[in-house]
Known about the structure:
Blueprint: H1 2-10, H2 14-27, H3 33-44, H4 50-62, H5 67-91, E1 95-96, E2 99-100, H6 102-106, H7 109-128, H8 132-158, H9 163-187, H10 193-217, H11 230-233, H12 239-247, H13 250-262, H14 267-279, H15 282-301, H16 308-322
Antiparallel strand pairs: 1-2
Helix pairs in contact: 1-16, 2-5, 4-5, 4-9, 4-16, 5-7, 5-8, 5-9, 8-9, 9-10, 10-15, 10-16, 12-14, 12-15, 15-16
Amino acid sequence: MSKRLIEEIQRPIASELLLFEEKFKESMKSNVFLLDKITNYIVKRKGKQIRPMLVLLFAKMIGEIVEKTYRGAILIELLHTATLVHDDVVDDSDYRRGFFSLNALWKNKIPVLVGDFLLARGLLLSVNHQDYELLEIVSKAVKLMSEAELLQIEKARRLDINEDVYFEIIKNKTASLISSCCSIGAASVTSKKEIIEKAIYFGEKVGIAFQMKDDLFDYGNDDIGKPLGIDIKEKKMTLPLIYALQKASWIEKRRIIFIIKNLSHKKKKIEEVIDFVKQSGGIEYTQQKMKKYTEEALEILNEFDDNEAKKSLELLVKYTIEREK
């Protein structure tokens, strides 16, 4: 279902997406053979391209896609790719999207430098074309993402996160980049502040729902490319677990927190925590919250005129909560 839905979402921008791919590949070219070899590998293992799709669709919904739109999409994708490369080093991950990660193939030093190169390419692309407003949007997103990641690490050590802090983290860590995609798409074709602000709010709602769906995968049973209970193992306090702990007795809460802090390396103990969350209604509560955010995103979209790009954005909101991985 997800593949067919993605193809349907891409239909209004199919030719623009192909052109984006060419331009994105060109933006990463280098005279250094090793670097060129690695960036070609990155291009081959591309994901679903949700972020450039958001840039292009939002621009097309309110105007005509122009060169500035493509530059904005490239900027976002270069930044996103750089963060993924650095994340794999930080997390010591051997795989990304079913492929070997860069650090698995070339050890840590080279991927860190590649991530730096990708970020620099994005910055120069904007500076050389004087796309300063696009650069400001992305720079703010990087700042928020970095702060949120550090806050999450801090909270993982103490396991004292509540629902308000959880939403602060995912709003800044995940939703800020999704929001940037929409606002860049809008800013590339219009200077109207009210439209750009609507794009920001829409992206935030979609990004928060996207992350909650990701968090729910930790408690699923399907092969989603993400090990079951990985968030628990990494001591990440996501909404299903936060809700379950809020509803638990003092003794039960202490028992679960002890397991997460000291026994999360044991598969049976992770399964115990997963069962606790399911029995406490954490899954249903998160699904309700996720649905609320997607409905709010659709309400914002309804303020725009109907066209094919808008229909695709509506489908993308649907995909956010129905995707299988």
